[in-house]
Automatic annotation (TrEMBL):
One of its GO terms (biological process) is CDP-diacylglycerol biosynthetic process. The chain crosses the membrane at residues 20-36, 57-82, 120-141, 153-172, 178-201, 213-233, 239-258. The keyword Translocase does not apply. It catalyses: a 1,2-diacyl-sn-glycero-3-phosphate + CTP + H(+) = a CDP-1,2-diacyl-sn-glycerol + diphosphate. The lineage of its organism: Bacteria, Pseudomonadati, Pseudomonadota, Gammaproteobacteria, Methylococcales. It is a multi-pass membrane protein. GO terms for molecular function: phosphatidate cytidylyltransferase activity. This is Phosphatidate cytidylyltransferase. Pathway: Phospholipid metabolism; CDP-diacylglycerol biosynthesis; CDP-diacylglycerol from sn-glycerol 3-phosphate: step 3/3; Lipid metabolism. Belongs to the CDS family. Its main location: membrane. One of its GO terms (cellular component) is plasma membrane. It is found in: Cell membrane.
Length: 306
């Protein structure tokens, strides 16, 4: 178990990580400029600058939280959780009182995870007992059970699964380095999937997301290995080769899985994006859908290995 708060600048991994992130952002900006100059300044390609700007904000925030200790990660996850729950509630049409209860329950996973691992595992059944009282308390006759099911799932899907990032930081030896690798691998997996799918995609993957292709899935895997290799210096030495080889396929699977699942939610809701909160990407859920499933998959994989 690590201390709750740390100075990111004192971590020996901070400087090399910042250098690699800066280099990656710089090279991607040069590539965007080349694309604009070669193909013209149409609205679609100008949108690449918006995405780049968003990444330029996200990357240092994540880096500071990773090396700031479990409490810093907890604050970041809590912010993502509340915004993610807000977008989810809008997508599935939760009524006002169920939204309020969902947000209140949503803030429990992070502090409980920071305080106690056993408490975190007990949280789901305890909150379910509270949840089943909602249709009775709200006197919901026609849609109470449906609203209960949607709100309970929303808590488990977003708040509980995302909070596994806190567990990695708090209870996994070398967890800060692992989180750095996960962040880079997820980001590059998603971006490589988009690039490879756009350039070479011919074979459709699923009706849930018509733009997804099997070629894009290959891009997911390549991007996951690239991100892992880029930040591999931060992996725990005793698990270095195991994680270097075994973590990228897990992250690629989680990224595709999470992306397709969120697509299923959006298709049922009849919308293209989960919101407009994050410039260039739509809603926050559109950006963290991969991370939501990668977090628990990585945590339990690490638990099995140590």
């Amino acid at each position: 178990m690590t201390t709750l708060v740390a100075n990111p600048l004192l971590n020996p991994f901070f400087a090399p990580a910042a250098e690699r992130i800066g280099l990656l952002l710089g090279l991607s900006l040069l590539l965007i400029c080349w694309v604009l100059r070669k193909h013209g300044r149409d609205l679609f390609r100008q949108g690449l600058f918006v995405k780049w700007r968003t990444w330029a904000i996200i990357a240092p925030l994540y880096l500071g939280a990773v090396f700031g200790g479990p409490l810093a990660i907890g604050v970041l996850v809590l912010g993502m959780t509340l915004q993610g729950l807000r977008e989810y509630a809008e997508l599935v049409g939760l009524v006002t009182h169920y939204r309020r209860v969902l947000k209140i329950m949503g803030i429990t996973a992070v502090p409980v995870g920071l305080a106690s691992l056993d408490g975190f595992y007990l949280l789901a059944p305890l909150l379910l007992l509270v949840a089943v009282a909602q249709p009775l308390a709200f006197q919901a006759v026609s849609t109470g059970i449906r609203q209960l099911a949607l709100s309970s799932f929303g808590w488990a899907y977003i708040a509980w699964l995302l909070a596994h990032l806190v567990l990695i930081s708090r209870y996994i030896p070398g967890g800060d380095g692992v989180l750095l690798v996960i962040g880079a691998a997820v980001a590059l997996s998603d971006n490589a999937a988009f690039a490879v799918g756009s350039l070479f995609g011919k074979h459709k993957l699923t009706a849930l997301s018509p733009n997804k292709t099997w070629e894009g899935v290959i891009g997911n895997l390549l991007g996951a290995y690239l991100g892992t290799g880029l930040m591999s210096f931060a992996l725990p030495e005793n698990l270095y080769w195991l994680l270097l080889i075994g973590l990228p396929p897990l992250i690629a699977v989680g990224s595709v899985w999470g992306d397709l699942f969120e697509s299923a939610i959006k298709r049922e809701a009849g919308v293209k994006d989960a919101g407009s909160w994050l410039p260039g990407f739509g809603g926050l859920l559109d950006r963290i859908d991969s991370l939501i499933l990668v977090a628990p998959l990585s945590y339990y994989f690490l638990r099995l290995m140590i």
